[in-house]
Every structure is written in structure tokens, then in C-alpha cells.
Amino acid sequence: MTQRTLGVAGRRLPGPDELRNNGVVKNVGEARETPTGSPQEELATGERSTRNRVARSILDHGPSTVAELAERLGLTQAAVRRHLDALAGDGVVEARERRVYGARTRGRPAKVFALTDCGRDAFDQSYDKLAADALRWIADREGGNEAIAAFARARIAAQAGAYREAVEAAAPEQRTQALAKALSADGYAATARSAPHPQKGEQLCQHHCPVAHVAEQFPQLCEAETEFFAELLGTHVQRLATIAHGDGVCTTFIPKISHNASASTAGRNPA
What we know:
Shape: globular
Largest sheet: 4 strands, antiparallel
Structural class: alpha+beta
Number of helices: 9
Number of strands: 10
Strand order of the largest sheet: 7-8-10-9
Order of helices and strands: EEEEHHHEEHHHHEEHHEE
Radius of gyration: 20 Å
């Protein structure tokens, strides 16, 4: 995927392959990182590579704590914090409280680091303006919101073959996992997990959305996808969060399959 260089408030924001060097470098294996007196020009590639891995891990797994990133990447927590500080300074990540679904546990929610809109843009070759202009033209010429909804459903239908094949080939209890894997192959970085108590079911999490900026303006894209998930899995589903509405992850709740469930009751996107 072609990377882009972004600008924020009049200054240049590096893409993930050009992350800022601050004069501190990694040791062999990137397990520990310490200052060194080597010339910066010889160290920049390693610094950018490690920082890119931190940003990419957040993209692939969603908002993450320092401890989670350190374990995932084989780095010390001190090294992860340093890279996060640099990424935050460049406007690529931001700190926030972890969103809790279901019953809250005691204590303050963990602080996690999530990609900003500009951070996501660094991973996208974006034709957002062109797509939004085209959809606006369709709405103006062909019937307003209903025309956009029809387009969104047709778009999903055109992509449905691979998803349907993957889900139908899986055992019933593995179908959400199969859908997540198929979505990941299309760039959505999706995972499936058990829903937190007291919910009974699973959560389908899409940590990346290639059309998030367009979906901000045209929520019909998310609604058509939600309806498709319900039809494909044979049960109603509910969207708990979407990247297009400012959440860190698109989260869809999928209850345990019920023979009485109806795809027509698919949950709509959060306002």
C-alpha cells in the first residue's frame, strides 16, 4: 500500500516509513534500547522502522496499553513509551481511556494509545475526496439518501462472495472467526473474541477501516455492512462502535445464534 506524508496545522507529518529520529537507537533484537553516540544519519532507519512497528501494531490490534505493545513487539516498556511520545508529538497517536463494554471493574480504566485520524491516513492511499464527491453526486442526481443506501448495498453485494464462502465453510461456532479472517484479507485487520460479561455472544472487531473518512459523511456504508453481517451470520447484530464515529475500533456484537433471530433486526450504527 502506498504511504502518504501528511500535514497538520501547517507542519509536515511523516508517514509510517518516515518516522522522526530522536537520536536514540535500538540494540540488536530491539529487546532493549539505550542512548548511543553513533551518527544520527546511520540510526534513522532503525528508529523509523521500530516506530513504524509500534504504529502498525496499534493499527492491527486497536488501542493498546504500553504493556501490551511491549509484549507484542518484544520491546521494553520504556522503549515503547519513548516511541509513543515521539508518535504523539507527530500527531500520529493519542492517549485515551480504554472504552469498557458491559460491567465495569473496580479502579480507573487503563490508558491506551490509539491512532489519530492523521495516523490512520499515513497507512492509506486515500481517494476519500473523490469517493465523497462521487457519492454526493449520486445523492444529488439519483435520489438522495436512498440512492446512497442502494449503492452501499450493491457495493457489499459485489464483495460478498469471498466472505460468504469463508463463513459457509466454517462450523457454526467458528463463523465469526472465519468472517474476521476474510475481512482481514481485505485490509480490515479484524479479530473475533468472546463478548465481555454479561453479554452472551461474540464481538467482531475491525481495527482498520479503509473507508472510514467517507463513512463519516455517509453512514449508509456502515449500515449496509452491518445488515450484511446479520444476513451472513443468520442472526441480528448490533454495532457498538465505529471508527467513522471517532471510536478506536469498529465493534459489532454478535449474540449466540438463535433460530428465532431475524437478519432484518440488524443493529444500526451508533449516533
